[in-house]
Design brief:
The chain is an alpha+beta fold and 475 residues long. Helix content is 19%, strand content 34%. It is built from ten helices and 27 strands. A seven-stranded antiparallel β-sheet has the order 7-6-1-4-5-9-8. Strands 10-11-12-15-14-13 form a six-stranded antiparallel β-barrel. Strands 16, 17, 18, 19, 20 and 21 form a six-stranded antiparallel β-sheet that branches.
Length: 475
């Protein structure tokens, strides 16, 4: 080949490469149009009004006389006690937030902190229709809640795949900040898999679309008009928007919603390890003057492996670094949490990790927080096999107590198994005061899905004899 032909061939190759590169780059044709996304999202995002009714409760107050001996009770406190019990009426509380209709039959996703403790929930649609809502289930660990209204053919938002979101992609946030109904703001995805250490499980989508108070529970929507996240919180030193908001991805939301519908509580699969991002661990060691070489700068550093857990069964050890799950690269704890949030106890995953800088793989059978692969069900009062009533004023005076629940009937159940008898007055369960039937219902529900499903009951018999019982809720 002569020089002229070589020159022409080289020029042709360079032109071909230039054309190929130009074709690979996306063409930007003017500003992004977000009107379609807004039109899809606004009708499906609702305003949620929260009401907690006024209640009479007993509180402890300091004795203003600091233990001054008052034998005749002239100052309302006979003897030399340091504290007094008083009944006070709490004020009625009202608040508001947002929610997203995810199905035409009235299922709505919002944040747990929007509905927690509510006595009444009112949902208002964009067209001003109002519905009373009931709570199907809540999950504090992810700060998600599922509520339901009785309606048909309601406007709903299709659910997209948050895994497909890219950094720099346009999104809109829709909600009701400051009670300003149906507010739309726009921005880009600033980061993914963010940890703020606010929830037990979190892998936030970070966006610079403005999110303010009242936006909680609202929708983060992509340009195709699909729900990709539930707005949860903002980062601010002033309490109002100052740059970034954070949303719970639909990859986590879908599993929570499915479990709440099916089981009433989230079936959470855990490795039973404690750890941190590798780069955080390395930085902490460097701050102490230690040099660290883990064989990688990315992944999850294992600081503790709980005995009897899934990680322990698989042979994971302190100092190991998890780098992938089922072939998907893991660079930080939030990414590992997001993957595991989609699993249930009994599921198997393939863990890739470094042990003393040597690459290894293990198949791990995930367990629940109680160390089994069983379905965790929320228990109710029926499991105790007893009936209760709030103690009377005469009982309070006679026994010198201010609250309690009397066992008025014992049937076959957990209390009978542990020897709790009729007439026993329950004052505290797991250190929580028992003043109403709602109190014991709540503590039974929480304990039944905890790592240690046991009730530690403290109480008193009519004779004045005090007694403690440990009542396991699992078989």
């Amino acid at each position: 080949m002569n020089k002229e032909k070589l020159k022409k061939s080289t020029c042709a190759l360079m032109m071909a490469l230039a054309i190929s590169t130009a074709q690979a780059a996306p063409l930007v044709e003017g500003p992004v149009d977000l009107t379609y996304a807004a039109e899809k999202a606004v009708p499906a995002v609702v305003h949620i009004k929260y009401v907690q009714n006024s209640k009479i409760t007993t509180v402890e107050v300091e004795d203003p006389f600091g233990g001054f001996f008052d034998p005749f009770g002239f100052f309302g406190n006979p003897g030399n006690g340091q504290k007094q019990q008083r009944q006070v009426q709490t004020p009625k509380r009202e608040a508001s937030g947002s929610g997203v209709i995810i199905s035409p039959d009235g299922y709505i996703v919002t944040n747990n902190h929007v509905v927690e403790g509510a006595d009444e929930l009112t949902v208002t649609l964009n067209d001003n229709r109002e519905f009373s809502a009931r709570i199907i289930g809540t999950d504090k660990t992810t700060d998600l809640a599922l509520v339901k209204v009785d309606g048909k053919n309601l406007p709903s938002l299709p659910i997209g795949d948050s895994d497909k979101l890219k950094i720099g992609e346009w999104v809109i946030a829709v909600g009701n900040p400051f009670n300003l109904n149906s507010t739309v703001t726009a921005g880009i995805v600033s980061a993914k898999a963010r940890s703020l250490y606010a929830n037990g499980v979190e892998s936030f989508i970070q966006t610079d679309a403005a999110i303010n108070q009242g936006n909680s529970g609202g929708a983060l929507v992509n340009t195709q008009g699909e729900l990709v996240g539930i707005n949860a919180m903002l980062y601010s030193q002033t309490g109002s928007y100052s740059g970034y908001g954070f949303a719970i991805p639909t990859t986590i939301m879908n599993k929570v919603v499915s479990d709440l519908k099916k089981y009433g509580t989230v079936q959470r699969a855990v490795l039973a390890i404690q750890g941190s991002d590798v780069h955080r661990y390395i930085d902490s060691q460097k701050a102490k003057g230690n040099e660290v070489d883990l064989g990688t700068n990315d992944g999850v550093y294992i600081q503790k492996v709980e005995e009897g857990g899934a990680g322990s069964d698989a042979g994971l050890e302190e100092g190991d670094v998890i780098t992938a799950v089922d072939g998907k690269k893991v660079t930080k704890m939030a990414e590992l949490q997001e993957i595991l949030a989609n699993k249930r106890p009994g599921d198997q995953v393939r863990i890739t990790y470094l042990h003393k800088k040597s690459k290894k793989e293990k198949t791990v059978t995930l367990k629940n927080s109680q160390g089994t692969t069983d379905v965790v069900k929320t228990a109710d009062l029926d499991i105790l096999g007893a009936n209760f009533r709030e103690i009377t004023d005469d009982q309070k005076k006679q026994l010198g107590i201010n609250y309690g629940l009397e066992v008025i009937k014992i049937n076959k159940g957990k209390l009978q198994d542990e020897g709790v008898a009729k007439g026993f007055i329950i004052q505290k369960v797991n250190d929580e005061p028992m003043k109403t039937i709602d109190d014991i219902q709540k503590v039974v529900k929480e304990a039944s899905t905890s790592k240690d499903p046991v009730l530690i009951i403290q109480g008193i018999y009519p004779t004045g004899k005090k007694k403690y019982f440990a009542v396991p809720l699992s078989d």
